[in-house]
Amino acid sequence: MGIRNRLETLLEDKRVLVVGAGGIGCELLKNLVLTGFKKIHVVDLDTIDVSNLNRQFLFRREHVNKSKAEVASAAVQKLQPNVNITFDHDSIFNGDKFGISFFKEFNLVMNALDNRSARNHVNRLCLSAGVPLIESGSAGYIGQVSVIIKGQTQCYECTSKPAPKTYPGCTIRNTPSEHIHCTVWSKHCFNQLFGEVAIDDDVSPDLNDPENKTAEEATETMMNGNGHTAMEEGNTNGFHTNGVAAEESNKNTVVPSTRKWAEESGYNAKLIFDKLFHDDIEYLLTMKDLWKSRKPPTPITFANVTDEAQGGGSTEMTDDVNDIMKQWTLKACARVFVESVDALKTRKSGLPEGQLLSWDKDDDDAMRFVAAVANLRAHIFSIPGKSLFEIKSMAGNIIPAIATTNAIVAGMVVVEAIKVLRGRKDLIRTVYINRQPNPRGQLLMDDDPYPPRKECFVCSSDKREVFVKVNLNVMTLKMFKDKVLTGHFSVQSPDVLVATTGNIIISSDPDDDFSELENRTFQENNIADGAVLEVDDYLQDLKFSAVLFHDENQKDSFVVEQDTGAKPGESPTEEEASEAKRKRKSEGEPSASEGHDEESQAKRMRIAAE
Ligand SMILES: Nc1ncnc2c1ncn2[C@@H]1O[C@H](COP(=O)(O)OP(=O)(O)OP(=O)(O)O)[C@@H](O)[C@H]1O
Ligand SMILES: [Zn+2]
């Protein structure tokens, strides 16, 4: 029998699921039908955007705003009319439709997703249903394909993925040293003034900065209104401490939020300018310890920036506020600041009561505001400025999607898929697409799949444990549920009980009212250091223990260690050791263990580029 016939026979009755019909998904669906796959189901929640058309080649201009899953299915059906292709325009998180029994209907699942939580979710369902999964991803010129088979290879979560890049709050609020710190602050500033305010978005000086030994003195100054002109004028300053700082200084003064202050000032752009770039900076200067070994910031006012012709001599700078490729002069930044604050103020006031603006890199006013604010702050801290174009790419975390990388990834997915369906697990490889050929001239590299990690909290057959450091006096059960269980562990419908007492503290049943309990801290619920919580998500068929450790240094934040069973702080972990091994093996190329999501890809790109 020829190879074509053998393939036809093999694929005749195989049913496969493709999750995601974007960049990789379109390539993959085309490859599958051209290879001879006969029964394909595709799930995608999204509709087609104009920006998808340059690489998601199954879509045409007339398809914009239509379902990706539907249009992609119809397009590949045309390529091979005898293919049985079905679709769902829905999120894979929809547990009513896509539960374990749904996954069991397939011989193989292939992910073509773009986010970690959906990948985690499919990983868990495939493990539970006992269906092999092929995971893939790309970021710019690099890509990866790996096969996940329960009990035989590492699952997607055997290695923890690097957390999204975050910066210490005090660096952002007090001592920025890179332009990205100013860009992050600037996005927070947008939220403070016009958008949804997250607890981590505070832009005012941070008195809790561990370096700031003069905090008390500074707090006194602020509370008394001494030496801090704006404070003397009542609420014109709007400088507010975070809750903990206020508590620690034992002065529960209610200090108005930046938003409230801006609203009361009628969003007067020039006043906001002087508060952000002069008054708050003057205030930072009173925290003297911060500037012992750093260059202190230089406050600016709207009047002196606009009166002085700043930066006019530099060829790199422009007064043309429409030039997004060149760095604006300070004067131009001040002008954009006023224009964008005015525009955003008008848009915000036109919204129905209670609605807010949300930051989007493609929203011109929002982007111009962030670029101007970031450069003004950068100037204050003696950090070189950037063009709007550069800031947009940093602020939007943009890694360009490269159609060719997606095509190679999708090709390798099919190669591995056939091995899995032939039952040739001995042939399975993890494949990496490098940014450039390695010293041996290879652009594509492959490696043996790694065996499952014994302590993986998702796929281990015996010990599923994670260690979480939280401040038990600050973190409420609700914060734990939202930030740790959902935000970090991608758990969808958790039931949580305390191992020692058997008390249920979080319930997935919508009829249960746990609101009183959930709004209390762990400490208020008598949950102490070392407590073991049993977490159970019936939708994902996932159970693990979370051991809580009290850490005074965490506020509403947390640290997770889920690796070797070592207590928090003990290192190196087994994962780190095996990652080092992989790095050696791949001769400086990206490591196998890292995920496919934006952050880890960016990290891998850096490694590859170095
Ligand atoms: N929970 C989910 N359920 C179903 N599909 C999902 C889910 N999350 C993401 N997807 C889909 O996965 C696909 C990923 O494709 P891709 O990485 O090319 O992203 P994109 O949104 O099409 O493009 P870009 O992000 O570059 O604008 C998208 O079509 C997206 O809708
Ligand atoms: Zn695992």
From TrEMBL:
Please tell me where Zn(2+) binds in this chain: 155, 158, 456, 459
GO cellular component terms, A-Z: cytoplasm; SUMO activating enzyme complex
Q: Where is the Ubiquitin/SUMO-activating enzyme ubiquitin-like domain?
A: 468-554
Q: Which residues form the active site?
A: 170
Gene3D superfamilies, per the entry: Ubiquitin activating enzymes (Uba3). Chain: B, domain 2 (1.10.10.520), Ubiquitin-activating enzyme E1, inactive adenylation domain, subdomain 1 (3.50.50.80), Ubiquitin-like 2 activating enzyme e1b. Chain: B, domain 3 (3.10.290.20)
* The protein's annotated pathway: Protein modification; protein sumoylation
InterPro entries the UniProt entry points to: ThiF/MoeB/HesA, ThiF_NAD_FAD-bd, UAE_UbL_dom, Ub-E1_IAD_1, Ub_act_enz_dom_a_sf, Uba2, Ubiquitin-activating_enz, UBQ-activ_enz_E1_Cys_AS
Q: Where this protein primarily resides, as one coarse class?
A: nucleus
Q: Name one Pfam family in it.
A: ThiF
Q: Does the keyword Transferase apply?
A: yes
Binding-site residues for ATP, renumbered to this chain: 20-25, 44, 52-55, 68, 91-92, 114-119
User: Residue limits of the THIF-type NAD/FAD binding fold domain?
Assistant: 11-432
Q: Where is this region: Disordered?
A: 558-610
In alphabetical order, the GO MF annotations are: ATP binding; metal ion binding; SUMO activating enzyme activity; transferase activity
Keyword annotations from UniProtKB, A to Z: ATP-binding, Metal-binding, Nucleotide-binding, Nucleus, Transferase, Ubl conjugation pathway, Zinc
Q: Which residues cross the membrane?
A: none
Q: Where in the cell is it found?
A: Nucleus
Query: What does the sequence similarity comment in the record state about its family?
Result: Belongs to the ubiquitin-activating E1 family.
Q: How does it assemble?
A: Heterodimer.
State what protein this is by name.
Answer: SUMO-activating enzyme subunit
Q: Which organism is it from?
A: Mesorhabditis belari
